[in-house]
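Dear Dr. H.,

I hope your travels went smoothly. While you were away I took the liberty of generating a structure for the chain from your last submission, since the lab meeting agenda had it listed for discussion. I wanted you to have the full record in hand beforehand rather than looking at slides cold. The sequence, exactly as received, is reproduced here:
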Amino acid sequence: MKIEGKRHLHRQPEDLDAIRSRESWKILRMMSEFVQGFEQLASIRPSVSIFGSARSTPEHPYYMLAEQIGRVLSDAGFTVVTGGGPGLMEAANKGACAGKSPSIGLNIQLPHEQQANQYQDISLKFRHFYTRKVMFVKYASAYVVLPGGFGTLDELSEILTLIQTGKTLPIPILLVGSKFWKGLVVWLKTTMVGEKMIDEQDLDIFKVVDKPQEVVSAIFEYYESRGFEPSAQERETLLEL
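The corresponding predicted structure, in token form, is as follows:
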């Protein structure tokens, strides 16, 4: 395919005006989502963001595991935050609702609309993935990542990158299910470290666990010597997120 002439590279003024207008409204919508999220979530600490497949049914062992994790975290005093959808998100919210602490869903509008699960004390709706991702990170004391698909890998990669580059605070990242995550961990160790795409110490950013109580214990162990409240310097880092 060949573009003939420069005239094809320039839009008409009326087209540019329409595009600029749409982009301006998009920025305002994103600002509105940020304000909504900050107002609703600023007081939820300590909280744990939980990720996992939307496809797992209530009969699946992963669903039962996610529900148990949501419950033990909630009873331990952690607000549980998920993507608000079905599957393992629903399971974690369900477990949290049965516990002592709030259950929160950060729902996203999708082309095939995601159905919000019913186990949410606070249910926020986002149109943009970007603003939603910030909310998952900004107030999280830990990330718990259960088996999932591309969306789960996207959230995992996001937090790994933010911590590796120092753009957010180091927090526990717990991959639940050693059998499921084994292939990825081996690839990171042998290929990414082996070809010097990441440093070996970058593998210390996350930890693999299997049981609900291991999740809670790992989080408390991490914060045992420092507490859950960020320092003044750490708050400044979060402002730049």
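Two observations you may find useful: The radius of gyration is 20 Å. The chain has a mean pLDDT of 90.

With kind regards,
E. W.
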